[in-house]
Specification:
Chains A, B: It comes from Chanos chanos (Milkfish). 2 copies of one chain form a homodimer. Helix content of chain A is 45%, strand content 13%. The first copy, chain A, has 477 residues and is an alpha/beta fold. In chain A, α7 links the parallel β3 and β4. Chain A is globular, with a radius of gyration of 23 Å. Bound molecules: pyridoxal-5'-phosphate (2 copies). The site of one pyridoxal-5'-phosphate has 13 residues of chain B, from α6.
Chain lengths: 477, 477
């Protein structure tokens, strides 16, 4: 009495991605440490995800004060919560159905929050208008991306929808695309140029795809995960021109827009550049931009709050999009509250402003300091190299592995960087993601780790990594 | 520059379900009332969903106190929050990654919460054991059902997976099944017998399905939505025997288990009955049971917290289930906190017990009183009849419509009960769901409305409904 023999063949072909294999090994190691089993390290450090709170980075107080008061409205009268946080909570509760965050948000999201997000975008983009009705609030940006792929992907055989996807990239997107039956068309970022997005490579990828599938969209991640690339305005203009010429829909993943490292780098949104390019681009290129409360200094990964803004969509497509977001994209009031505060934080003069800006600045300082340490320490280690990390939450470090490592991995039937990560986890208690999970040029090997962690811990990570690496390299030399 | 011509044909065939058409009309009416446009009613009352907070039923304080303290841990020192709520918050925070509810919950759900749920099930089922590792916490029970359908549904043509689904039922399940490519095999509940689930009808449905599809699972909703049926132990035993004999997987939707109306009705879980039936049933019949924080006295619909318990699954299928729930089913820490409190509420002797039990009892009293009023008022209205409502949150009322209504509806190309609901909404400001959205026997017509609302409002609803109904019937007689 089992339906195994009949289980969907698609299901059977799904395997745990390498990252999850490592994560479940990490969970086992944690249990063993708790049971007192001796290891060469006292504590496991998991830098595999961008979940900064899981590593002890503290949430932003203002956000949590508003949430607490929304949860339990008696706190609207408590002086443990600053006046502006109470005020915000009051207005969010007024906008919740029945005045409770336990009710279901309206389709598309709470009206007040959609307005906040739209104002935020307009301010960010130097006045480029944004329409609240074209913004959909979802359960994290991943859900918004998945819904969008459902809308986009169709066809069979050589007519299947193709999407140009950067390599390296983050694996959840590629999995969602495959899941939807779409074809991934890889374009390689140029590592030697700081993971630059080069137009010849986009051209090559598109040409190679034609005939195999129907390339309809171009996915970009800016700032990059895992590349750390932040595109210049010029680079964005080139991509937009390319999309216009090739009639590609632009899927722009801008979830890391709040984390830019250093004064000399600036985030400019695709939408802003598109509008500032003027006609015909500004009125014809179709674009969807994604953002989230999971990243940046908020790091509210567990809240699952995200949005997508749709630009220049055909009104008929817009109607379908509406149906889709209405049916599948709901989100929780909590996630939407977090978005409201991301979009409309305390301003100079508000009671909560000093603490808020101090907390945000402190996390930004931590990130910048970590970026600098990663760069200076790891670029000094023989057999490692790391491009500048201009934005985002990750370091993506190349490993120059000896031929013997590659051979031994091949014999074991595992990717060389996966083997490296397994040993790094077992021997040094560091959980990082192998480059093979993100995609990389054939014959190159990488590791990815999150830089969102306290400075002392980052120091410990770098020491463990350096020491493991030199042992490992010696063993195989 | 539009991908409309290429948009997925599946997408194009999706239409807004009738309930959403009514809801968007309702939203328009609300706006018009706010603008001061005169109507025959002062306020719109929306009873189309089970979202009780949206209609002003207050959340349970203990739950919200724990949530508030989890959001903003400074409140762990505030005496605005009772000691046991603070204690609970502390223990939930300890179990959250990094001590923050903003971190991502572990795959499957927080260990503490899975244990609470497992203990809850064991207590509820008189000691039948429950394994925390076989419980998966999800973003609402709807997500758990959808993930399960992904696992279950496969095949093409006459080999497509069929699922027996009660009629009437709740439309989201049928849509998810269709979406997954599964075949809905309807079995009709017997209205005259208080919507009883009869074995001959199950047999008939199964026979009719064979050859058209591959019936693999039986979906039951107990207590029923919209039927209000609560199955007896004997009825459940019959269904289990049928499932065993026909080798059907049991999908048991028990999200309304906390709302049983009146002393003479009792909820018994399928799992309990299964185990008390003993061998061979207890070790062979595969079963998945779903529960949620959306319903009952909690009504935390917007929190999106649910779970599924899997029983007797083949270990190989279990492995696939794990992969699926790991990949798609994440949930938020907030939803899991709500589940923890559903599963482990304050006990006699705890500081919060008196208020907690008073709040729960008050909601139960409201529901019972509403059930009685619906029954006594509507069964006295010519052209209406209502079976006993033993459980759940809905009244499902039969309309005995004159032939002329049916003809006029046919001319207008709309279902007769949909026409009734549209006019009820426009003329009396009541938003309810037509029976055609739930499924009903050909030639019978119904409306469904939620009974989770304050008594005064229910009184107003019944008066408006009665008055509209008699006008409507007179118009067509
Ligand atoms: C580039 C990118 N896009 C989207 C997401 C998904 O974010 P969310 O948590 O909003 O679903 C991630 C998360 O890792 C990401 O790295
Ligand atoms: C029978 C039934 N099952 C499941 C659900 C979904 O509940 P949740 O909010 O947990 O996703 C509903 C909601 O209306 C329902 O009526």
């Amino acid at each position: 009495m089992s339906f195994l023999r009949e289980i969907s063949p698609m299901v059977r072909s799904i395997h745990l991605p390498g990252q999850e294999v490592l994560m479940s090994r990490a969970a086992r190691i944690r249990t063993e440490l708790r049971q007192g089993i001796k290891k060469d390290f006292m504590e496991l450090i998991d830098l595999s995800s961008s979940d900064i709170h899981s590593r002890g980075i503290k949430p932003i107080s203002f956000l949590r004060q508003v949430m607490a008061a929304c949860c339990y409205p008696s706190l609207l009268h408590s002086d443990r919560i600053p006046a502006d946080a109470r005020e915000r909570a009051r207005s969010l509760l007024t906008d919740s159905n029945g005045g409770s965050i336990g009710s279901y948000p309206p389709t598309g999201g709470m009206a007040k929050v959609r307005r906040s997000v739209s104002d935020f975008i307009t301010r960010r983009d130097g006045g480029v208008p944004s329409i609240p009705e074209h913004i959909f609030l979802t359960t994290g940006s991943q859900q918004a991306l998945t819904i969008f792929l459902k809308l986009l992907v169709s066809g069979e055989g050589p007519l299947r929808t193709g999407v140009l996807v950067p390599v390296p990239s983050y694996s959840t997107f590629s999995m969602a695309l495959a899941n939807q039956g779409g074809v991934m068309v890889p374009y390689y970022l140029c590592e030697e140029q700081g993971w630059a997005l080069e137009m010849e490579e986009l051209q090559r990828a598109l040409q190679a795809a034609r005939g195999h599938c129907n390339p309809m969209a171009l996915y970009v991640i800016n700032p990059g995960n895992p590349s750390g690339l932040v595109q210049s305005r010029k680079s964005i203009e080139e991509v937009i021109r390319f999309a216009a010429q090739e009639r590609l829909f632009l899927l722009v993943d801008e979830v890391y827009q709040e984390t830019i490292h250093g004064e000399d780098t600036e985030f400019v949104s695709y939408k802003r550049v598109l509008f500032e390019m003027g006609s015909p681009y500004s009125s014809t290129v179709e674009l969807a931009s994604f953002h989230s409360v999971s990243k940046g200094t908020f790091g509210e990964y567990g809240m699952r709050g995200g949005y997508v803004e749709l630009v220049n969509l055909d009104p008929k497509v817009m109607e379908h999009a509406l149906t889709f977001f209405n049916r599948d994209g709901s989100g929780t009031v909590m996630g939407q509250i977090a978005l409201d505060i991301l979009a409309d934080p305390p301003q100079l003069g508000d009671p909560s402003y000093p603490l808020y800006s101090q907390e945000v600045q402190s996390i930004k300082n931590t990130l910048l300091s970590n970026v600098r340490r990663v760069h200076s320490v790891l670029n000094g280690v023989p057999g490692m190299s790391c491009q500048p990390i201009r934005g985002g939450l990750y370091a993506f470090v190349q490993l120059h592995l000896p031929q013997r490592v590659i051979e031994q991995a091949k014999e074991a039937g595992v990717e060389p960087d996966m083997m490296y990560c397994q040993r790094l986890l077992n021997e040094a208690g560091l959980c990082v993601v192998p480059g093979c999970e993100c995609g990389q040029r054939e014959g190159s090997y990488h590791i990815r780790f999150c830089i969102g962690v306290q400075e002392e811990i980052m120091e410990e990570v770098l020491q463990r990594l350096k020491s493991f690496h030199s042992h490992f390299m010696r063993e195989f030399s």
